[in-house]
């Protein structure tokens, strides 16, 4: 089989067969197909798309490109949670510990940032000493003992996805239904959990711009999960403005701690409790999702969820003192403020543009080999619906390089709109697919 022929067929809109899809996945994983040819293939898929059968096959072969984790040594129903990516989305750092406090074993493998979205592994990397590379038996032992462990995707779990994931990030081929589905589900199916909760974002800061696109993605992923014997649910949540107030790795860890203390922004607190509650339901710790959500809120209020976060940090070599003293997290060397230029109500804080602005500060990658500035990012002082007076601080921008911050500031100017009239916010959770 010839790589150029497969690229040409997909470029011209043909449906690829199982042999062709497996050839591309296995060839790239083995290093026989170079980056430039896989980039061309991904771009062809991006523009021509894949049908459902092609997507199922791509997921299957990406999963089979490496090992499948055996989590049978962990007691109870293991529940994994995954977000399709957003701006300011630090829900794993909150929902994971809250679900663990409800008695759900949380054995999670997470990824790094992709495009303008942040990655859980990058966020955890902001905690001094925190280790995301953990041996499999230690991972299992930690979940049994502490109830939760969050580690990086190893090279043995869906290695095809690990390579393709990094390439998509820098070739503008991120937001494609088939590529997102195969990336998410190949890892989730190989990671060994018994149940999967998917948080599918929709809006201008998501890969799926409309609720219809998000629903199509959610239903396809749920279908693939159930076909492989996994209890699978999906939540469609809004991403038309950043989630919470913090965008950037150390800033988001700090905000997650505040939420676990019961003091965080309303939107991230609400969504995290909802996700934790649905994890409790999937883990059969609650009879209904609503009962699970009430349980998760209680575990956050009584400090149990924060203790699970502390247990995870300490068990994985991190400095638990950050919970009492967040100044121990990486601190930025420079900052700029973005001020309201007139009185009014915040009509829009465009999530994608804010995500790109955060990327420009150094908080995200523009090339797959880029180093992240863990202290960089944006902190919002106002959200959609808030009233401002001229000169009020809408947000502050943090980083090392003042020129990068100035570039980010220009992006933010285009992201924020102020209206003379009151503005209503979008509902946070649009739909739950069971």
UniProtKB/TrEMBL annotation:
GO terms under biological process: pyrimidine nucleobase metabolic process; pyrimidine nucleoside metabolic process
Taxonomic classification: Bacteria, Bacillati, Bacillota, Clostridia, Peptostreptococcales
Organism for this UniProt entry: Lentihominibacter faecis
NCBIfam families: PRK05820.1, PRK06078.1, Y_phosphoryl
Reactions listed under catalytic activity: uridine + phosphate = alpha-D-ribose 1-phosphate + uracil; 2'-deoxyuridine + phosphate = 2-deoxy-alpha-D-ribose 1-phosphate + uracil; thymidine + phosphate = 2-deoxy-alpha-D-ribose 1-phosphate + thymine
SUPFAM superfamilies per UniProt: Nucleoside phosphorylase/phosphoribosyltransferase catalytic domain (SSF52418), Nucleoside phosphorylase/phosphoribosyltransferase N-terminal domain (SSF47648), Pyrimidine nucleoside phosphorylase C-terminal domain (SSF54680)
GO CC list: cytosol
InterPro entries in alphabetical order: Glycosyl_Trfase_fam3, Glycosyl_Trfase_fam3_N_dom, Glycosyl_Trfase_fam3_N_dom_sf, Nuc_phospho_transferase, PYNP-like_C_sf, PYNP_C, Pyrmidine_PPas_bac/euk, Thymidine/pyrmidine_PPase
Keywords (A to Z) from UniProt: Glycosyltransferase, Transferase
Pfam families: Glycos_trans_3N, Glycos_transf_3, PYNP_C
Segment forming the signal sequence: none
Family affiliation: Belongs to the thymidine/pyrimidine-nucleoside phosphorylase family.
Gene3D superfamilies: Nucleoside phosphorylase/phosphoribosyltransferase catalytic domain (3.40.1030.10), Pyrimidine nucleoside phosphorylase-like, C-terminal domain (3.90.1170.30), Transferase, Pyrimidine Nucleoside Phosphorylase, Chain C (1.20.970.10)
Top-rank lineage group of the source organism: Bacteria
Function: Catalyzes phosphorolysis of the pyrimidine nucleosides uridine, thymidine and 2'-deoxyuridine with the formation of the corresponding pyrimidine base and ribose-1-phosphate.
MF GO annotations: 1,4-alpha-oligoglucan phosphorylase activity; thymidine phosphorylase activity
Protein name as catalogued: Pyrimidine-nucleoside phosphorylase
Keyword Transferase: yes
Self-association state and partner proteins as the record states: Homodimer.
Annotated ranges, domain Pyrimidine nucleoside phosphorylase C-terminal: 345-419
EC number(s) per entry: 2.4.2.2
